[in-house]
Design brief:
Elements (H helix, E strand, L loop, with lengths): L4 H5 L18 H43 L1 H26 L5 H18 L1 H11 L11
Helix pairs in contact: 3-4
Length: 143
């Protein structure tokens, strides 16, 4: 007769004594359930994540755009101050130290000035741009 580990570790209690308190060995069904749950978790991470991750990223990106839209006014003023300060610093360097900035520095400052000018004039450009792209607000009152 075969003797298993369970039989060696746990013997039947005598009359009036508490049980041995051994925990039963995990059944094959329990092991299969753990493997199935692990496999399901792995498949979820592998297969479902590529479908949900872009939606989560786009939702966060949309929230960041909405936040930037609300911050447009003060950020534009801050950018105008930064670009104006950079122009003043460059001109001061040219006049006081006779330092000649590189052509790329002048070009980047010109680009920064154009971008800040466009950002500052966005309230004027917005209707034209939206009309050009076919984006229009619908009047909900007219039904």
């Amino acid at each position: 007769m075969d003797v298993t580990e369970t039989q060696l570790a746990c013997t039947l209690p005598a009359n009036g004594q508490p049980g041995c308190g051994c925990k039963p060995a995990a059944s094959r069904a329990a092991k299969a359930a753990v493997v199935a749950a692990g496999t399901a978790a792995a498949c979820t991470a592998c297969c479902v994540l590529p479908f949900t991750l872009p939606a989560v990223i786009l939702a966060n990106f949309g929230g960041a755009i909405a936040l930037l839209d609300h911050a447009h006014g003060w950020v534009t003023w801050l950018a105008m101050l930064a670009v104006g300060g950079a122009w003043i610093w460059m001109i001061r360097q040219v006049l006081t130290r006779r330092a000649k900035p590189a052509i790329s520095t002048w070009a980047m400052m010109a680009v920064a000035t154009v971008v800040v000018t466009l950002a500052a004039s966005w309230p004027l450009l917005k209707p034209v741009v939206f009309h050009g792209f076919g984006i229009a607000k619908k009047n909900l009152d007219k039904g």
